[in-house]
Amino acid sequence: MKMASSINKMHILLCLLLATLTTMAQGQTRIGFYGTTCPTVQTIVQATVRSAFQTNPAVAAGLLRMFFHDCFVLGCDASVLVSGPSTERTAPPNLSLVGFEVIDAAKTQIETVCPGVVSCADILALAARDAVVLTGGTAWSLPTGRRDGLVSRASDTVNLPAFNDPISVQISKFADKNLNTQDLVALVGGHTIGTAACAVFSYRLYNFSGTNQPDPDINPAFLPQLRALCPNGGNASTRVALDTGSVNRFDTSYFVNVRNGRGVLESDAKLLSNPTTQTFVQRFSGAAGVPALNFNDEFARAMVKLGNTELKTGSQGEIRRVCSAIN
Hints:
Layout: H1 2-26, H2 41-55, H3 59-71, H4 100-113, H5 120-134, H6 167-175, H7 181-188, E1 195-197, H8 203-206, H9 223-229, E2 239-241, H10 253-259, H11 266-269, H12 275-285, H13 295-307
Antiparallel strand pairs: 1-2
């Protein structure tokens, strides 16, 4: 009996030791991760993003979208930044991403003062936060300590949310990342500073689902405005604000527009096709008769949650020397 008891105790101790070693290897993100190893990292990223934004305000939406596309594929590990044949960057949904030069510029500066310390994944996360702030959003405390991924494959982008996803597919894709329906609506609210090419929504204006008619979800008063911006057979690359009347301003007017049938993307319009997502649209937009939700607060919370998706920390992954190439 004593021998059995000793064996059980040894087994428990071994399990605890393995659990501790696993936790140490995996690590975790935390506020102030670079407080002693690279205390100027946030200042450098902020200054770099601000400079780029002053030259081209559209870069803010680009950085936010890039962070989203990075996190939704194998977690927030900067795999979207890797260049080369068949990388994520070459996949159709990522061909229109902009802002890579901003991340590269920040990384170059950081490497001169803190070589081999700060991951590209964290630089991208910080840049996305700073982009929101520059467009009028509220800042939030951002945990850091991510590591950069070791793979980047175009084929892994198949589950990125798409512009024509029905709401059930959107909910499922977000749930796969441990993001609930409120997170979905809050994060899609990032479209308040976004734009889209006519190519990804003009089918809604002229021949929706093969009907030779416009999408009935589009407010009839809004349709002529969209058709003027994207004439049938016109320039497919023309970009249109996803938040009409409020481009480059991080605010709640996007939700007001969606609520009023002025969502540009089909996926945005479909937020009204589900009772739960519709309610969150109403609450974020300040609609009468429903308790209001603070969009800035909930967006920040959802961004932190997204940023902790499928983390690589501790001894996992690497710290890249340049963001566009795996070491």
